[in-house]
Amino acid sequence: MEFETLVQSRRSVRGFKKEPVPRKVIEAIIDSAKRAPSSMNTQPWHVHVLTGTPLEEVRRRNMEEMIGGAKVKRDIVSHGEYQGVHRTRQVDIAKKLFGAMGIARDDKPMRQDWVLRGFRQFDAPVSLVLTYDRVLDPGAVCHFDLGALCYGIVLAAWDRGLGSVINGQGIMRSDIVREVAKIPEDEVIMTCVAMGYPDDGFAANAVRSDREHNDEFVRFVGFAD
C-alpha cells in the first residue's frame, strides 16, 4: 500500500475480533517499524509483546485497581487533565464515539463500561508494551523516538490487516504491567499498543477523528509564494 493511502486510511480500532495474531506477523511488523529514526541512532526502545494469560492478568488487575479507586501509577509524568482546545478535541471525539455506540449522555453505566474497555485495552488479543532505557531520563528526546517507533508499528500493522489503538489507559498501573511481563527496572514503561484484527461490526471502528486545517497549525517561512 502506498504511504499516503496507508496514512489516510488508518484509524484507531476499539473493537477487535477474538482471533489470535500469529507471532510471525507481529515479528514482521516490528521488523518494519524498527527502521524508525532515533536520535543519533540510539534506538532506545524495547517492545514487550503480551498475549494469552499474561495479558488477561494485566487487564484484569489494571481494571480492578482503577475501579477500586487506586491512584494512577505510571512511570512517565502525566500532564493531568486536558484544558482549552485540547479538552475540546478530546470531548469532540468522545461525542462521536458515544454517538456511534448509542451511548446517551445520561447513561452512566454504559459510559463507565466504555472507560473500563480502555483499562482492558479494548479486549485486544495482543498488547505491545513500549519501554525505553531509564538511563536516558529525563526522556523528552527518547519519548520522541518511541513515538516514531510506535507510529511505525501502527502503520505496519494496518498494512497487514491489523488494527490498533495507542492506549495509555492500559498501563495506568505500570507496576502491574512490570510485574506480570517481567519488565526490568532499568526500563521505563511509556505506553502500549492494543492490536488485533478489526471487528467490522463494531460501530466505533468506523469513527474518524477530525484534523485541523493546515492553516491552523502550520507556518511557512521564507517561501516566495
From TrEMBL:
Taxonomy, superkingdom: Bacteria
Keywords: Oxidoreductase
Keyword Oxidoreductase carried by entry: yes
InterPro entries, per database record: Nitroreductase (IPR029479), Nitroreductase-like (IPR000415)
Residue ranges of domain Nitroreductase in the record: 8-197
GO MF term list: oxidoreductase activity
Family membership noted in the UniProt record: Belongs to the nitroreductase family.
Record-given protein name: Nitroreductase
